[in-house]
Amino acid sequence: MSSQPRCPHCRHFVYLDALTCPNCEAELGYHIVTREFFGLRQGRVLIGDKTWYTCSNREWACNWLVREDAPAGRCFSCRLTRRQPDADDTVALEKLAKTEEAKRRLLLQLGDLGLPVVPWDVRPGGLGFDLISSLSDGKPVVIGHANGIITIDLAESLDDRREALRVRLGEPYRTILGHLRHEVGHYYQNVLLNDDGAWARCRELFGDERTSYREALTRHYKLGAPPDWHESFISEYATMHPWEDFAETFAHYLHITGTLQTAAVIGIHLDATVTNLRDTDVVPLASYRDEPVQRLLNDWEWMSQGFNRINRAMGFGDLYPFTIVGPVRHKLEFVHDIITRAPLTFDEQAALAFARDDSEQA
Question: Would you give the distance in Å from CA 276 to the centre of its chain?
Answer without folding.
Answer: 32
